[in-house]
UniProtKB/TrEMBL annotation:
The keyword Iron applies. It holds the Pfam family GcpE. Keywords: 4Fe-4S, Iron, Iron-sulfur, Metal-binding. Its cofactor is [4Fe-4S] cluster. The lineage of its organism: Bacteria, Bacillati, Actinomycetota, Actinomycetes, Kitasatosporales. This is IspG TIM-barrel domain-containing protein. It comes from the Bacteria.
Length: 243
């Protein structure tokens, strides 16, 4: 994920180029404001790799991301206001454009309704939140979905993804929420992501560390290589995924 202000188009594109050179296959950019949404067409059209728009706060930014030609849109229903009220519109526009939606649930911004029902930020709460939102899309015939259920605790994260994999057949994007700084965050990420990939769970990965995005990509590559899921290339810049 980029760290440059999305409104700074040139800086964001330079960062995306650096990530692509490091081996990143997919990149996510944050869209918390109207100005960020306005920058998406230039970024999506000029980026070296597919761009996923990470939507914050307002459902209208979902439509802006789709119109901008982003490769996918990530939404967290826990932090997008009145998201459920706009699912029908989002499903219709995303379907028409052929744009997938990632329902990205994490422990840091769990839907208050789900949290109230479970009492704690458990694996079950994460899974119920994700599948509840899936059901809303499915009511409108939209199934071009990818899911993620991230927690900062590797044990909870592993349990959540295993539960989710048993309860649905959607592609899964795996990673930890707020893993922390290296080396501890690196170890946590390797434990959670590695265990899940070894189980055959996970279609894309993101290593989220409190460090530079290029370092995140390198860790992700190392995890894939250690599991034999990606061959070591002849140079230091291997291929990996970070969305």
């Amino acid at each position: 994920m980029t760290t440059s202000a999305t409104t700074d188009t040139d800086a964001t594109l330079r960062e995306i180029e650096e990530l692509a050179t490091a081996g990143c296959d997919i990149v996510r950019v944050a869209v918390p404001s109207r100005d960020d949404a306005a920058a998406l067409p230039a970024i999506a059209s000029r980026a070296a790799i597919p761009v996923v728009a990470d939507i914050h706060f307002q459902p209208r930014y979902v439509f802006a991301a789709i119109d901008a030609g982003c490769a996918a849109v990530r939404v967290n229903p826990g932090n997008v206001r009145k998201f459920d009220d706009r699912v029908a519109e989002i499903a219709a526009q995303a379907s028409a454009a052929g744009i997938p939606i990632r329902i990205g649930v994490n422990a840091g911004s769990l839907d208050p309704r789900v949290l109230a029902g479970h009492g704690q930020r458990t694996a079950e709460a994460l899974v119920d939140s994700a599948l509840g939102e899936c059901a809303l899309f499915e009511e409108h015939g939209f199934r071009d979905l990818k899911l993620s259920v991230k927690h900062h605790d590797p044990v909870v994260t592993i349990r959540a993804y295993r539960l989710l994999a048993r309860r649905c057949r959607y592609p899964l994007h795996v990673g930890l929420w707020a893993a922390g700084t290296p080396p501890y965050g690196t170890v946590k990420s390797a434990v959670a992501i590695g265990a899940l990939l070894a189980d055959g769970i996970g279609d894309t990965i993101r290593v989220g560390l409190a460090t530079s995005p290029v370092e995140e990509v390198k860790v992700g590559i190392a995890i894939l290589e250690a599991l034999g899921l990606r061959g070591r290339p002849p140079t230091q810049n291997a291929s990996g995924e970070n969305s």
